[in-house]
Design goal:
This protein is an alpha/beta fold. The chain is built from 11 helices and 16 strands. The strands form 2 sheets. Strands 14-13-12-11-7-10-9-8-15-16 form a 10-stranded mixed β-sheet. A 6-stranded parallel β-sheet has the order 3-2-1-4-5-6, sandwiched between helices. The model has no long low-confidence stretch (mean pLDDT about 95).
């Protein structure tokens, strides 16, 4: 496996060229350090759209054929969640460095296998939890957490309200199975069912394909909590919620609350609903000397004394597109590590641990019980 020099261009393969895959591919191209040598998708229309930005890329419908290309140094994986584990392990075993969208896994059991594949094959594997590379997240951690200004942290609150992406309706063009969409290949490891446009187009609403709001949204925020506090070891988890309004065939709850406990030191909560009456998403870290509120656009620190003190506020400059800049910085970090062989900001093990914390919420929701968890052995304990 040849190691690239610091100034060599990366030849990238893209597996999963839907809306998110094409967006992140665009961030790779924006670095001017990457050539896209191959693209892969089970739907030819998505490949055609990707080719508009990567005209010379070879095309595939089977990721294993793409991975046979010796000239590819790295791959971007942006498939639905149920394909992440198999595709990532195949890519790592083929000697490719990997940038994989979050959540790393569909199930809690998949994580250790992907971590092992990355380590055994000595590959760089970055998970797309882009806050890890966010400049204002890193700055807030240094100013308020690492310095001790916040005091003893007892509670981390997270929420994400009114995310309309989870309410997407398949367009008319997908109501009947397109002749150039390989439904059997899309299902992959999932048990057979007849073609359903919603289960293709809005896969996150179905627990066979994704983890709903918990693994799509909470994985981002619980990872911020892990990053800020330096802890990734929940010892219990419980959740409650349901499909209270959007009874459209989905199996993931439209409203959910998750509560994780971290070794008797603090709790972390997540609250989400698809109801449009309230919107917004943020993380709030509550300590004995103050509280830190942070999202993708700014942070605010409220000292506990004096009580009426104005918050210390930092706003991300308006000229920076917040989501784009976070992703661009995360991609840059990955490419730096492809050259240096250092561990990236969102290393595979970090991605696994944050996905596992989220999975505790979904497992509790499905099983309707509190879970006790051994984070060292990564085992859910028996009742």
């Amino acid at each position: 496996m040849r190691i690239l020099g610091a100034n060599e261009r990366v030849n990238l393969g893209v597996i999963g060229t839907g809306e998110r895959g094409r967006h992140v591919m665009g961030r790779f191209l924006a670095t001017n350090r990457v050539d896209v040598g191959a693209v892969c998708d089970i739907y030819a229309n998505q490949i055609d759209l990707a080719k508009q930005a990567a005209a010379s890329a070879k095309t595939f419908t089977d990721h294993r054929k793409l991975l046979e290309m010796k000239e590819l140094n790295a791959v971007l994986i942006a498939t639905p969640d149920h394909w992440h584990a198999r595709t990532a392990i195949d890519a790592l075993s083929a000697g490719k460095d990997v940038y994989v969208e979050k959540p790393l896994t569909l199930t809690i059991e998949e994580g250790p296998r992907i971590v092992k594949a990355a380590r055994v094959n000595n590959r760089v594997c970055q998970v797309g939890m882009q806050q890890r590379s966010g400049r204002h997240y890193i700055q807030a951690k240094k100013l308020y957490i690492d310095s001790g200004r916040i005091g003893k942290v007892t509670l981390a609150r997270t929420w994400w309200h009114g995310n309309t992406y989870h309410l997407r309706r398949a367009p008319a063009s997908l109501q009947s199975l397109p002749s150039n969409l390989d439904w059997a290949r899309y299902l992959g490891p999932v048990k057979w069912r007849d073609y359903d446009p919603q289960q293709y187009y809005n896969f996150r609403a179905y627990l066979d394909f994704g983890g709903g709001q918990v693994t799509d949204l909470f994985t981002h925020w619980v990872d911020v909590v892990h990053m800020l506090l330096g802890r990734d070891n929940p010892t219990s988890g419980v959740a409650a919620g349901g499909i209270y309004n959007y009874k459209d065939g989905r199996t993931a709850p439209d409203t959910i609350n998750v509560l994780l406990e971290y070794g008797g030191d603090f709790t972390c909560t997540f609250e989400a609903t698809l109801a449009p009456g309230i919107r917004g998403a943020a993380v709030e870290i509550c300590g004995t000397q103050g509280r830190l509120w942070i999202d993708r656009s700014k942070y605010e620190f409220y000292p506990s004394e004096p009580r009426n003190a104005s918050p210390e506020t930092y706003v991300v400059p308006a000229e920076e597109n917040r989501a784009d800049q976070l992703t661009l910085d995360h991609v840059q970090n990955f490419l730096d590590c492809v050259a240096s062989r250092a561990r990236p900001n969102g290393d595979v093990y970090i991605g696994h641990r944050s996905a596992a914390a989220s999975h505790l919420g979904n497992i509790s929701y499905v099983q309707k019980r509190r879970l006790n968890y051994n984070p060292d052995r990564e085992e859910i304990l028996p009742l």
